[in-house]
Write a structure and sequence with these properties.
Structural class: alpha+beta
Oligomer: single chain
Radius of gyration: 31 Å
Number of strands: 6
Helix content: 55-70%
Order of helices and strands: HHHHHHHHHEEEEEE
Distance between the termini: 56 Å
Strand content: 5-15%
Number of helices: 9
Strand order of the largest sheet: 1-6-2-3-4-5
Largest sheet: 6 strands, antiparallel
Length: 362
């Protein structure tokens, strides 16, 4: 290896960590998590090869960068979901406005026809004046001439007035939804920028490694996951887990496992690529059980179950900020979309810090 390679890697870890923090947008999009501190590295010695300790520092920094990218991805997905909902509401309100305008036109036509008929018979009667008044209610209060026979006219006036009020409310609601939509677009753009920054920083860090070092790094990642999974299994947890999948759960599991080998892509929900919550939400949608789009909302909205009671098809939520989700398959295994550069794959359920378990078809 060239002179100072170890120092180059150590410097890259520290510099990229600082750049990632400085580049992060100030707006918070998801549950905050502590900012990881770059692992200390020894002073570089010219001509010294990159050690496992150096690579472990790289692994920890990569984990932190991809974790932050996952948090930002959840924020992006949440903003995207809200934008869809708000757009749908705006479209629905626009339809109501069109319908209301047509109803108002018909009501005014009825009032005009009544006025024309009275004019032909001997000028405008009180009823016509009432209908065409700028302020019908004030006219009614002032004249005191409302008799039993005027009920139909009053109903027409009330309907016309209510329709005008409805139209104003629809317009106000549409304006408010549009304002929210614009704010959501800005939040989505900021989240997208942060995802791209974190991934770019991770890729830059990995680019400092030679092929054999990348292979050693992959081995360290596998060892870390295996160590965590072994500790989880050694707790005896599998002796307590014996739940059987529901019929809907079997369909969700079948869908998720069929996606194995497809690439991770942040913000994607199939059919060619997925992010973690895109995979789980689509799997359960295939089983006829729509669930929230993001891992954080899945954690918030779905029923929590004890780990010992989980069954295939349940979702395991990871990390304190619920930034990752996987589907439990049974026998201590999960299927998930891990991170950029990886594909949908099987893994140990205990290979990451478990926050809890949720059940979509509780």
């Amino acid at each position: 290896m060239g002179t100072g390679k170890r120092g180059l890697i150590a410097t890259a870890v520290t510099v990229i960590g600082a750049v990632a923090v400085l580049a992060a947008p100030a707006t918070a999009f998801a549950a905050p998590s502590p900012t990881p501190t770059p692992s200390p590295t020894a002073s570089p010695t010219p001509g010294t090869a990159v050690t496992n300790k150096d690579l472990e520092a790289v692994r920890e920094r990569l984990d932190a960068l991809y974790h932050d990218a996952a948090v930002a991805t959840d924020a992006y997905n949440a903003a995207e979901e809200k934008a869809r909902q708000q757009s749908a509401q705006i479209v629905a309100l626009a339809k109501k406005i069109v319908q209301g305008q047509e109803k108002l036109r018909r009501l005014k036509a009825r009032a005009g026809a009544a006025a024309a008929a009275q004019y032909r018979t001997n000028g405008l009667p009180d009823e016509a004046q009432l209908i065409l008044s700028d302020n019908p209610q004030e006219f009614l209060d002032a004249t005191g001439r409302v008799l039993q026979g005027q009920r139909a006219t009053k109903a027409l006036i009330a309907e016309l007035t209510q329709t005008q009020q409805d139209l104003k409310q629809y317009a106000d609601d549409a304006s408010a939804q549009w304002t929210k939509l614009e704010a959501g677009r800005k939040a989505k753009a900021a989240a997208k920028k942060k995802v791209e920054q974190q991934i770019a920083a991770a890729e830059q860090l990995e680019s400092q490694l030679e092929e054999r070092e990348k292979e050693r790094l992959a081995e360290l990642e596998e060892q870390a996951a295996h160590k965590a999974q072994s500790a989880w299994l050694d707790s005896g947890i599998l002796d307590e887990i014996d739940g059987k999948a529901s019929e809907a759960g079997k369909i969700a599991v079948r869908y998720a496992t069929t996606q194995i080998g497809k690439p991770y892509e942040w913000g994607a929900e199939g059919p060619d690529s997925y992010d973690c919550s895109g995979l789980t939400s689509q799997a359960w949608a295939s089983a006829g059980r729509p669930i929230p789009r993001t891992s954080q909302e899945q954690w918030k909205q779905l029923k929590h179950v004890d780990i010992k009671d989980m069954r295939p098809g349940d979702l395991i939520i990871y990390f304190d900020d619920a930034s990752h989700v996987a589907m439990y398959l049974g026998e201590g295994a999960i299927v998930h979309a891990p991170r950029p550069g990886r594909t949908v794959t099987l893994a140990g359920a205990g290979s990451m810090p478990i926050l809890g378990v949720v059940r979509p078809d509780a």
